[in-house]
Design brief:
single chain; globular
């Protein structure tokens, strides 16, 4: 997620375009992330509702 998962691309072009379109409709907020990748991923999972 957000370049933190260590994977390149994924899914079809149409699927990626659909996700980008959906994300563009969401409210935009600026955040400053640090150098701790795990902490950044935890924070993003929490604010996006993906935390388990």
């Amino acid at each position: 997620m957000f370049g933190l998962l260590g994977v390149e691309g994924g899914g079809t072009v149409a699927a990626r375009e659909n996700v980008a379109r959906c994300l563009a409709e969401l409210p935009h907020h600026s955040v400053v992330l640090g150098h701790d990748v795990a902490a950044n991923a935890d924070f993003l999972a929490k604010v996006t509702g993906l935390a388990v």
